[in-house]
Amino acid sequence: MCIKVKNRAKEAGLSFEEVYKIGKTVLVLPFLAALSLSACGASGRSGKQTAGLTPPSFPAQSAASATGGKDMAGGRKLAMAPDLVKTGDYNTISLKDMKLVDAVGIAIARHPDIGRATAVVMQSKAQIAVEKSVWYPTMTYGVDPGYSRYYGGKARNSSESSIRGTIGARQLLYDFGQSSSRIGVARATYERDRYQLENTVENVAYSMAAIFIELSAAQELVGAAQREYNTMRITRDKIAERVASGLSDAVDLNQADVSIRRAQSDMLSAQTRYDVAAGRFAEIIGVRPDQVASLEITASFIENLGERRNGVDSTPSVLAAEAEVRAAQKKVKLARSQFYPSVNLGVSQQKATGQRNATNDSSFVGVQLNGSFNTGFREKHMIEAARAELNAAQQSSENERLITRTALGSSETEAQGAMARMGNSSEMMSLSLSSRDLYWQQYTLNKRPLTDVVNAERDIFMAESDRITALADYLNARVRAYAAVGDLVERLRKR
Question: Is the pTM here over 0.90, yes or no?
Fold first, then answer.
């Protein structure tokens, strides 16, 4: 089975750069591409055609929407799975032996949290234009219908209906830093939202990678449990032959049956773990694959991602916190500027129906000085609030650095511990394999009980399970270290 991804942006005659560009930053817009579910008509090298897909129906195998695109936030490229969006109309992703990079790419393309963060970035970018518009002339107009004793042509003590209209224009000349501060706040907020978008993409990528590793590990555990069960079945058949020929006691056959039941329990436990991981996998990317890449292949892929390049200070969450500090600094400046008036150049013309006089027909051209002062010391309190917000933003920035350093350090420690466990499990597995055959030979000579043979087989499974779990923990730690410094998606994109 496979997934065909269709490029809707190309049909509209737009390049992805034109579609996704927001200022100098290209953002993930998952809703601009759509998944087309259809049969993968092309035949493979084996001559077999792939099957068509149906909408998701869990827990059966299914497929759902997947899109692709790329993102650049804060000068850092954010991408889906490489080649997920190509020049051609379709790109095919197989549901058999699905790779880590494909799973992460689809998850990024369709995750709603990324769509939300993208919309926030678009909103904050539009807010910059809103704040800049204050420096453009503002046209004003108004119409006031009503009654007045001064607008009619009759006696002054009479009233008649009239309509008064006003039109004018106003241009800001100077406002003592109010407008520039608002623009600065909007720009800093935009930068913060871009970095938060990048951080959201990293978090989604890490979550999907962790689920993929868990699914791959569960897949390996199912195979290990199946091998244990098959081996115990073979051992049980041998014992049954010995019991039939009178070489072994019937109790040994019962003990072999118990070991088979235990192997079945291991198999059911491994299958449950696989089903749970597969369910989480399908919930995020909308498709349950036939099979994912093996843990060894995934380990080789992650090892080839290379060493981390980014430091703590270039982590998206830290950069977002720093942008929040800059926004708070601008808010302090904005609060201080509230003490001062704004200087405008104004032009207006007023007219009313009725007889022309000084009250119903007037013009104005000149400089306007506008300001306000609150007797409750509002401006002073605004400054205090802005300073408190700045202090909170600075503390939040330090907290983000602390969180990043802690996550990075714990990931490195966990990776080292997992490596040690892998070595120990491999040695234990090797010893158990060599002991199993020896124990069987000694059992046939009545020098060892059947318990030693069964326990040796059990030890092999436990050692293999420990090795698989340790390898999965190691890969998780490596991926978490990349995500901690915001380097995971960039590394996957280059692969």
Answer: no
| Helix pair 378-444, 450-484: axis angle to 10 deg | 160
What's the CA gap between 344 and 328, in Å, rounded?
A: 27
- The Cα–Cα gap between 482 and 168 comes to 59
- The residue extents of the domains of the chain are 2-98, 190-321+394-494
CATH class of 190-321+394-494: mainly alpha
Q: What is the maximum span of the chain, computed from C-alpha positions, in angstroms?
A: 136
Residues sharing a CB contact under 8 Å with residue 294, sequence separation 6 or more, in sequence order: 216, 219, 220
Q: Taking the CB of residue 266, how many other CB atoms lie within 10 A of it?
A: 22
With CA atoms as reference, report the closest residue to 457 among 231, 177, 302, 278.
231
Cβ atoms < 10 Å from Cβ of 71: 25
What's the pLDDT tens digit per position in 77-119?
433 333 333 444 556 777 788 899 999 989 998 899 999 999 9
pLDDT < 70 positions in the chain:
1-91, 147-161, 310, 354-361
| pLDDT value of position 3 | 54
How far lies 436's CA from each of 28, 265, 342, 467, in Å?
55, 21, 90, 19
**Sign of the torsion formed by the C-alpha atoms of 431, 432, 437 and 443:** positive
Question: What sign for the dihedral angle of Cα 407, 409, 414, 415?
Answer: positive
Apex 80 CA angle, 77 and 86, nearest 5: 100
